[in-house]
Protein 1
Amino acid sequence: MKFIKNKIFLLAAVGLLSSCEKQAFVDVNKNPDALSEIPPQNQFLQATVSIHSQDFEHYYDLYRRIMPWMQYNTPQTGNQGSFTLNFDNFANRYGRLYNGIGDRLYDLEQLVSKLEPEEQPRYEQMIQIARILKAYYTFYVSDIYGSIPYTEAFQGRYGGTLQPKYDTQQEIFAKLDVEIKAAITSLKATPAAPQYSLAAYDQYYRGDVQKWIKAANALRLRMALRVQKADAAAGNAIITDVLAAPAADLMSSNADAWVFIGNATFTGNAEGGNWNTEGLRAPKPMVDFMWEKGDPRIDAFFTPNQYSQANINLLIADKKLPAGTVAGRRYVGSFTSPDESRQTAVVQRYYSPKLISSNNQTVDTLSFIQPRLFNTGRADAAGNAGTGQSYLPVITYAEYCFMRAEIAAKTTGAATAKDWYEAGVRSSLDWYNEVGQKSQLTDYVATTPAEITAYLAQPGIAFDATKAIDQIASQSYLNFMKQPQEGWALYKRTGFPNETSIVPLPRVSYLNVPLVVPRRAPISLPTQTDPNYANKKAAYDAMAALPGFGELTSAAGRVWWDKP
């Protein structure tokens, strides 16, 4: 069940907004002159919160759509039926661009324009950082929708049109790259006046301009790899331009990662609400791979099953297990293909928990998603609420390393690719180790340097130039456990993981009919009573003409960058 609840956002470094400030945000929607009552940096903070507080997006888009499609989880009894056709309530991200994120970041600039002329130059860096954040979220929405309003968007209450035209995805990606590059140039320049820092209003970098430059360049790379699939020349030009930047302008460690960090209650209370992953199983393909390779992240991603030796002894006493049974492997995944999960033998062995008579406790064979990885405030078995930190990544350093590794594997050669690949694996293990400890993940054991060294030496993990792209993509896929939407994009962009890749994504079927993984958000047909009908119809007709786009209401088609 989905919960609708009043949300309280208590951020790590920022107190609650006052009731007066909240009313001011309401007033802005009615009266643009009310903007003068709000500090510009408040709009940045509010936009940031709006990006990361979307529990409906987690409940629908991630937990019950993208994660099952990409085999990051399954429901309680495995995937059932034609689950890849389940995309109702999908794509919660769209509405937030125009009501809570892009509009607020646009407002920030309008707020500054209302200040005294001598004050305005002191906000130049803040404006550029806001533009980077707005570019990121615009890209995030267009990524699965294609054409959306952008050039004429956000301007309705400032004298602009209320019926904005739609920019094509190709136009949007090009414009965003130009805007991000211009923001970087501005941030690198010596300011004309002392700058007001975002400081406590910036949950990512606390106003550190140099880190924002690094984040912006990483975002350009992420976008360029999408563009490269549809327009190799354009994508390659962006990549070349980014990699020509000074080393100081590029990510170099986990300290540079673009990550929102809030307190435990930011991602739900002890009960969890919409952040709750209860009932979501660990997937068999990923669990089997991680177990066999000794992947130190396994206890950050998943929980051990309930077959502890103590429970086994009680089941022996109940004569439900043979005498002498000992605890073995306790990370066991759920079947991802409906045709497997519904087999009688599988149901009896994996989906039929045993009951301990003495305490009425069920003993489950299968693992679940680690609850506090997504819902940090979740209570443990003793009822103690989590008090750790909520980590919500945008671009990790590991992702940056894997992007560099992929680029190197295609251009400069195996030696450079190997270095970036190994840096990516190490940084991913280190980052999830930080999350494991600071989010207080249940039963988490800290990763040691020896474990990392041993993991990198494992067959399939140790770099093999003949399998470079497969290895890089497979490790990227694992790293995206906290960002399954990016794992989905990786699959669409590279074709990895797949049935034969190092980390496998097995074929899924129902009644022996292969199921197709969705590739974009479905789009509702516009009605002629829609005030913006003409612009919508023109945009949708143009997208429908793209190769592979398919029917508007289908999720199986492709947006511009996802070229067949």
Protein 2
Amino acid sequence: MSRFFATGTDSDSETSSEEEQVVRAPAPVYTFSDDEEETKRVVRSMKEKRYEELEGIIHSIRNHRKIKDFSSALASFEELQRAYTRASSVIQKEENGIAPRFFIRALVELEDWVTGAWNDRDSRKAMSKGNSKALTSLRQKLRKYAKEFDSEIVKFRENPDLPDDDDERKDTSSSDESDEEEKVKEKPKVRRSPEPPRRPPPQDDESSDSMDWGSSSSESSSSSDDETRGATTLRERFLKRTTERDDDEERDRRRARRERRERAGKVSKKDQADDGGEWETVRKGAATSDKPKMFAKDSDIDAALVVKKLGEISAARGRKRTDRRAQLELLHELRTVAQQHNLGDALQLKLRAATVAALFDYNPKVSDAMKPEYWSRLVENVDHMVTILLAHEDMVLSEMITEENEQLVTPPFQVRGCLLTALERLDDEFTKLLKECDPHSNEYVERLKDEVRVSALIDRVCQVVERDGAPQEICRAYLRKIDHLYYKFDPRAVKKDLPPGEETSIKKMERLCKYIYANDESDRLRTRAILSHIYHHALHDNWFQARDLLLMSHLQENVQHSDPSTQILYNRTMANLGLCAFRRGNVKEAHGCLAELMMTGKPKELLAQGLLPQRQHERSKEQEKIEKQRQMPFHMHINLELLECVYLVSAMLIEIPYMAAHEFDARRRMISKTFYQNLRASERQALVGPPESMREHAVAAARAMRRGDWRACLNFIVNEKMNAKVWDLMVGADNVRAMLGRLIREESLRTYLFTYAHVYASLSLRSLADMFELPRQRVHSLVSKMIINEELLASLDDPSECAILHRSEPTRMQALALQLADKVGNLVDSNERIFEKQGSFFQRGGAPRGEGRQRDRPREGWGGRRQRNRRRDDERGHED
């Protein structure tokens, strides 16, 4: 009301108001015209609010990570969890429940940081107690929380170079802000009208009041003129003036933002319309740049220019956020350009070598397997390299050639690179591919079919290396060939009527290994060649050649100093050598080869065919990862059940006759500890049912042999179940079963003689032959051998074909008495040794327990009494 009283309608009031300054309340500023300064209210969506909250917490976590503050990082992580829970409804609505990429990136970065700090034991020891405790708690909570985002994390790790979702949001918001700034900057340039601003028509409820006030038009025009002039002066004073330089800078900033969004494949239609550009389809995936032009249109393309461009492309290798796929495409295009201009095969070879190196770099993690499609491209490029080298005898590819000495235009061509290293890495990637697949799936079979390609490629590389390489390089190439050959059975090697000139795998292995024996400069290649050669001989039942080669090499003495892969190959060779000895009927040799491997209880780990579950802190994650990388592919595995069965049967055929011969011997030793423990565990059972597993069959057969029942023993070892599980897996299964039947009869006969010889006065060899279904000559040979070795006290009567027993063996009572006497003797010896150790105590004045001391005689020790007694005996002898 004071405003209306102060500004009356009469002229007196106007003059007085000009002369006297009346204090007025500040009137609200209304802006009804476009030339007035607009105060725009920013309305943010719920998504922006929640995402900004998440980004702020993530920023604080990154700051904590820089200073290694795990306590603060733990608190921020818990706050991040709560903030994500609050934003879950927005994420569910806007992103269909998929976590935003910047959030997943923060989780991955935090997980990598925590894992690295946890694995660095030295830094953990140097931490404070609170920081270390916070690290442990943060690690546990992060692992538990990250399980909810496993799929998103895996997808992120496949393409970590993709831009985050918030980049688009920031670019959009920044472009909007820039547009607003541009509008604001353009507003001062608008020419103002001298007319006063028009007020909007009054509302219905205010119309009556405005009518009653009755203010004149002259007053309103003058007051509005003053207000407009004052507002314009104020705005011009504080508003930033726009210059041509500012316009140029703003235009450059907008263009940079548009280019950044175009690289991310998210350029808007409006921006493209402003630039006058064309639409381009951008593939989904890694962040890609525009396809650069390789050369200018009017440039003269030659080998030097292509090599220079190749250097520019290769310079980006290993840099952060380098698009590896784009590099491969650039190399492919460069190779196409070189081929179109006929720049020569030497340049093509160099470009192929660069492509192979880029394919190896495509997989960022060395431990992970390469994708099958890129591995196929790798094989194709290496194959093209070999084709070029075989076609040009005057072309050399070597690492010893420097880039300055390369000859790519004129012969003799010299190119820098190493074909053998590429082949070795390709072979290793093939092994990784096989280990990544499920061995019981069709995918493994499909991947295994590629071994034909790898073997053929190795043969072709061997031709190139034999022509141009040094002897050591030839040895490396031959060893790769041996690695794909030594474990394969060649049925032609068993046949005797081979066509002339045909080379079997045995002859090929002998040729390759002999070259390595003669020319290898490092012991590792020679050692692996010897072990592979022994393995291949044993696989084809060449027992004597394999045994002699092992004994001449003396590998048993030095193999523990070799690298883990060579030790694994040694274990595989000894296992296969034991199987070969068993197939040939050499039970003792088979047991000796398998004993060291099976007695540890870890044949699966020693043969690199899997990892056994370990207790906590017994194997770290790094050790487990390294051991998994050393595992053998599934098609190279040795059947562990077959190994264990052969070992137990061999131990049974050796241990049971020995136990029967030394039943009452107190100093009897165990030949096979594992077999002995299984047998004792079976004997301790109150109720023994029919055998089910392979181990139970072997133990039941041993108990039957101990009774002399060879038929039951043979039935436990050779039956349908055991044939399907074990014996049918061997080459020549019928011969193996026949050999087992013969050995079981012979050892059962020896066990029977050891056990029941004291019952008989004489034994008929013919009756023994009929009882054990053996030829009489064989029974005669066995009994004679036992008599010669003094295992059986008897003599042979040839006319009657009987074995006359001399009954010199002690009876059961006598044997027990002798055993008791031995134990008592051992006890006496141990007591005397203990008594001699305590002699010093008696010399210091001690007396045996139970002996009294004479008070009138000075104390004398055990030594003093012995000297006194000796003097007394001497005096008596002198008197006599």
